[in-house]
Amino acid sequence: xxxxQDEMVPEAGFRSYYGQPxxxxxxxxxxxxxxxxxxxxxxxxxxxxxxxxxxxGHERLGAASRMAAFVGASAGSVFLVTELGRPERFLNMLRLxxxxxxxxxxxxxxxxxxxxxxxxxxAAVTPLLPAPMVSRILPGCLGGRVLPFIxxxxxxxxxxxxxxxxxxxxxxxxxxxxxxxxxxxxELPFLFAGSALASAGAVGMLSTPRAEAAPAxxxxxxxxxMETAAGIxxxxxxxxxGEPYRRGKAGLLMKASRVLTLGGGLLAPIAxxxxxxxxxxxxxxxxxxxxxxxxxxxxxxxxAADPRYTVVPQRERAEARRLxxxxxxxxxxx
Amino acid sequence: MAERMGFFTDTSVCIGCxxxxxxxxxxxxxxxxxxxxxxxxxxxxxxxxxxxxxxVAFIExxxxxxxxxxxxxxCTQAACLDxxxxxxxxxxxxxxxVVQPDICNGCGYxxxxxxxxxxxxxxxDGRAWKCTMCYDRLRGGMEPACxxxxxxxxxxxGPLDELRERAEARVExxxxDGVLEARLxxxxxxxGVGGDGAFFLLLDEPETYGLPPDPVVTTRDLPDMWxxxxxxxxxxAGAVAVSFLRVSFPRVPxxxxxxxxxx
Lengths: 334, 263
Hints:
The complex is a heterodimer.
Chain A: H1 32-56, H2 59-83, H3 102-125, H4 131-137, H5 146-174, H6 179-182, H7 188-207, H8 214-237, H9 248-271, H10 275-305, H11 307-324
Chain B: E1 5-10, H1 19-28, E2 54-61, E3 64-71, H2 79-83, E4 89-91, E5 97-99, H3 110-113, E6 120-122, E7 127-129, H4 135-139, H5 145-149, E8 155-159, H6 160-176, E9 183-185, E10 198-202, H7 222-245, H8 253-256
Parallel strand pairs in B: 1-10
Antiparallel strand pairs in B: 1-8, 2-3, 4-5, 6-7, 9-10
């Protein structure tokens, strides 16, 4: 028979209310939330690739990246809206702009970024459509001269919203009471940025003629290295709070992500002209980026569900503060 | 702005009658939260949530029972309010924190943001719910339903400053009576959330009652988080630029790996 709550606690000195969680776990769903994190990151980094490709004259890579940025932002928005408890009220996200709410900042960023990438993508596909069709949809010179100009300007502007898209989601996770997320707030943005860059590079590699895909391959490799480095630093710096990243389902996903991302990333620059190796590398990076996002959500849930991760670090902090209090000389000796 | 109002829950006189839970549900029309026999104690509501705004905890220890009616803390620095993107969560003229159900779109961000695990989303209706400190009753000059129903005055309602003085006196009295384990929880404006609008007198460590021992509002680190994210965003842009620089050196051997080329 369970006699006291002490019998249920896994470690000496740590107490809880019948082993129940102290904080509520994140209620975000699979695959919505991880899929949005992946697509938003992909879109953000792809828009930077698209703008740089345009400036350096890599038009094929630029067009492919514009499409990736648009598809990522729009598909991501769908996942984000369906994630809401009241999807019909999604416009309430734009009732106000609050810098204390990463979700508010993110909603505005996504709104701007989604619009910009849509215009940039429209300008990229218009030349591929038959001329009579274009002139039927767009009156006069709009399709011929105005749209390409607006499209380029939008692509340039989306290179500003893009990096915010790729990193604000790290703040979104870190700005919670979930110990595994909050304590990782220094490394998470770099992990997200690296993963986004690798994802965009992978899509660029897979969708661009190999002769023009060298920058995409380099992006994939740099992103993979950045994500891996951030992940290693994060896991080594976090003590008990980092445990959910190493154990259970989240641990498996994070390990799979490490192998796939780094393997795919290192393969990217040497895949060079081999079609099969390019495909292998791009798919491995994409799978790795998805594993990262699912792993992060799972680690957050584990971290919130076990009261140990909330109580033990807080108890240590409280004890340390108690011990550093200077004793009152007027007080009688104990 | 009216005076800051709050709760002082003195668990040393709680008898676990759950009148507070019932009164809260009746007044606020809070739906059923399930009839669950938890097989641990007389607790049949488990924890605070979307459909449980007062939760009576039962802790069976050697020779004594601890009972405590938990509630939203109405933090001075409220994480739920900070992170709410729609403005559905707001601070009232009584310095309490309330959700406006007609605005909330159920994004769920407040749920993992709360350091006490109070607020939650009601899945059948898609919105976030929690204690309002009976905002409607307060506006009508009445005390919240739970405090009104409490038969032992374990739940006390009033101006926060007054409650803090009363609580200090109560702890001193208990210490003088030999109850040395009595301590206040959430009363200090210097704690990680700037002090709770609903604070407690406990007879054991907070974690025994399911309360965090040293909660900190997550948004305290937010400026720092934005700085790190800014650094990462710039690094991302820089890395893309570097990726294109490499095009100028297309014959770097390790990038070309000629052995992989198809002849």
